[in-house]
Amino acid sequence: MNTANVKAGETVMVVGVGGIGINAVQGARLAGAKNIIAIDPLENKREKAMELGATHSFASTDEAMETLTDMTRGQMADSAILTPGLMTSEIVAGGFNAVGKGGVVVLTGLNKLEEQNIELPGSIMTLFRKSLKGSLFGDCNPTVDIPRILGLYQSGDIKLDEIITRTYTLDQVNEGYDDLLAGKNVRGVVIHSHD
Ligand SMILES: NC(=O)c1ccc[n+]([C@@H]2O[C@H](COP(=O)([O-])OP(=O)(O)OC[C@H]3O[C@@H](n4cnc5c(N)ncnc54)[C@H](O)[C@@H]3O)[C@@H](O)[C@H]2O)c1
Description:
Blueprint: E1 11-15, H1 21-30, E2 35-39, H2 43-51, E3 56-58, H3 61-71, E4 77-82, H4 89-98, E5 99-107, H5 122-127, E6 131-134, H6 142-154, E7 164-168, H7 173-181, E8 187-190
Parallel strand pairs: 1-2, 1-4, 2-3, 4-5, 5-6, 7-8
This protein binds nicotinamide-adenine-dinucleotide.
């Protein structure tokens, strides 16, 4: 909603449907996007995305290109929000190719700090007026956005309980990391016991 500035009727691609990406899907839906294409190699992630507002889902950006081209009559996506576990130059290029004229590619996923993971044709970027933007914590302003998000949760417009695949005690935290790496969880949550 904030970094890609999604508007009603737009086409948004979300690449990587984990704890972050599932909420990019929900944000795109709330902002009124017409087409929300969720990309994830794992079927459980794609299913959750479809449940929470995605209109289409594919295992890779490449597989989405034909449908994306058809549904937008070649204009392509207005934005691509990249939320994979590990950002690679292939994923950045996939998002760059998926957006059309004036399209915005949002980089949320991370990699090693020194990793060179952006390799793009600059002339196409200029001629198509595409832009690439980094986003930290959804570019939110906690003072106003956290109460707003809580209100949207209370009214049922943002689903938070539904995205929790499993909860863990603090003692089970390593199991939680194993499940995260194995792709089992859309969102795993550690519950601190107070007794
Ligand atoms: N910018 C920020 O403010 C911010 C904040 C927190 C986390 N992060 C970063 O965001 C990223 C996502 O975090 P998360 O907690 O959602 O992780 P996660 O592991 O829950 O989700 C990542 C998802 O990406 C999918 N994926 C892996 N390779 C893919 C590919 N080639 N194409 C499409 N999908 C692919 C995985 O299957 C998984 O569903 C991480 O890199 C994390 O470090 C950024």
